[in-house]
Design goal:
By secondary structure, this protein is an alpha+beta fold. It has 23 helices and 17 strands. The strands form three sheets. Strands 10, 11, 12, 13, 14, 15, 16 and 17 form an eight-stranded antiparallel β-sheet that branches. Strands 1, 2, 3, 6, 7, 8 and 9 form a seven-stranded mixed β-sheet that branches. Strands 4-5 form a two-stranded antiparallel sheet. α11 packs across α15 (458-481) and α11 packs parallel to α16. The radius of gyration is 28 Å and the shape is globular. Bound molecules: adenosine-5'-diphosphate and magnesium ion. Magnesium ion (MG) binds at residues 193, 320, 447.
Length: 697
Amino acid sequence: MSNVPELFGSMVFNDTVMKARLPKSAYKALKETREKGKALDPKVADMVANTMKEWALEKGATHFTHWFQPMTGITAEKHDSFIYPVDGEQVIMEFSGKELIKGEPDASSFPSGGLRATFEARGYTAWDPTSDAFVKEKSLCIPTAFYSYGGEALDKKTPLLRSMDAINKQALRILKLFGNTQVTHVTTTVGPEQEYFLIDKALYEKRKDLLYTGRTLLGAKPPKGQELDDHYFGALKPRVAAFMADLNEELWKLGILAKTEHNEVAPAQHELAPIFTSSNVATDHNQLVMEIMKKVAIRHGLTCLLHEKPFEGINGNGKHNNWSMSTDQGENLLEPGETPSENAQFLLFLSAVIEAVDKHQDLLRISVASAGNDHRLGANEAPPAIVSMFVGEDLEEILNDIESGTPCVKKDRVFMEIGTDVLPKISRDATDRNRTSPFAFTGNKFEFRMVGSADSVACPNMILNTIIADTLCSFADRLEKASDFKSELNKLIQETIKKHKRIIFNGNNYAPEWIDEAKKRGLLNLRSTVDALPYYTTPENVSMFEKHGVLTKTEVYSRRDIQLENYWKQISIEALSMVDMIRRDLLPAAASYMKDLCATANSKKQFSSDLSCGFEKGLLEKLAPLTTELYQKTEDLSAAANTDRTFKDTLDEAEYFHNTVFALMEETRTVADQIEPLLGSAYLPYPTYGELLFSVV
Ligand code: ADP
Ligand code: MG
């Protein structure tokens, strides 16, 4: 491997490159734009574009692209070459400030949830100078936001950037109240841990379900699954180690802080964690991580599965979204401090998160809702669909003391009066034990564990930033008016804990009793995407988004519809793929096996009437009724998926696909999975779970 420090960021037009290559005044102007959002003078923009181009050409680029994140959840790029004709037959390489700042991709095919009327089908892309441009596969990629003619966001990035502004504004108000006047900017920080499966590419290509849907729609349980936990943190297999080394190198070149990697609980499952960075950069980087994982896997004869539930009965893939807030002075606002005042400030930010999570369980659930993630959430695995919060015993005890106002005699702790006492040290150990909580405090950050592995982290972070900004705003409104700040602060924290402590749960979130307990506490349990999405557009939610300038009412409605549409389309593709596999592969395989069993039995009888046909008969007696049942279920499923019903709206359609089509898929699969283990290996039309999970060595 090459020299890592030299390699790191070598394909990124970062601050160091800008400083070294731009004229001083242009560098200063660009820095103002990057840090304070000041508009860039067109002349300076031309200068930046030219410098960017020269640098990109040295890196082998021939094209440039505005790189954006439409509502499909993956990134989009449209490549233009730098060539510009001169003197008839010659070309020069050109790139202007105008091209850098704004683009007009023909975007009529991106989902817009009805936002882009056909009379103005164009979408526009606008440079996001806060995320660095980079060279990937001979193209200069310029991170951009994507919006409609009317200015409505058509992407995942724009609302995220708006939400970062909103939380910055509110957090600064709070810091000012604590006398902190040096801070000029608060950024939200994110470190998304990415889970994925690696399987053999040749086997992958033999499974239509994986090809069409990213998950297995059929497949009997293998003799060995994950029961031994022998994969977790196990030694890396050589092919996997080679993949990871190659992946790291690719990511480092793009300045992505890939830090840790290990085997996960399930066989063939792995994880990559980066070092955290600002939310928007982390979002861009995570999109690149997913894309590059897939590409590098192919180079190693592997396929990377990012689906939330590629295999039934085996752990699914999640993405742990580690989240915090940090000042431009380098202070992590979720780090318990050393002085009474720092601790009071920490407790206030902590209270804001507690209130936000309790008040907006619906939005947090919506931010991770997808057909794929429904298999994890609410399926007695990973975090449940119920949103709750883990703070650890130490911190809960402190919160209880504050709430009751009674001295705590346990341990060596005395009654805390906020702003006068120092918090006892909260050990990281005590905060990191619960792995079942959907939203866990881990010492100096929160880990939101409900995010689906294939999803962009833009939406969950947009929601987190907005709901916490909203709570901080109401706190600031109240505290700014107070005549006695300290006593009002004490009251506020105490009241917040009292009112919202129902969201705190330190126990086992996978236990069935938790569901009853959560119900008693009045917590939401939105088990599926179709249960969750209607909450997006409640008047309270719409007005909150509008108040903080994150989403307009139209944008909220369009996003709800896009998510619902993605949902039913996904289920529809899955249903049709399942029907295809059963009709064209599984049933013919079973027929051929049954035919051979009959033939063997017949020839045995002809050979000698004394020969027993017990095994053939036994298998036929099992297979005949199962195949008949499977045939019938598949007919029903096909009819349901190809329905000609008219639907009231997208919600109605999504509900139909959930309640009818998806339910039939589950029934059909149950029968198919009983047939598969009865068939001889030579008859099996596609690789089994055992082969898929254990063949990479
Ligand atoms: P684990 O959760 O596996 O115990 P760590 O706590 O070290 O591991 O980190 C998990 C992830 O949290 C990493 O991606 C790390 O960069 C990220 N992280 C650490 N501190 C912060 C922070 N202040 N804000 C956001 N993410 C953070
Ligand atoms: Mg973690």
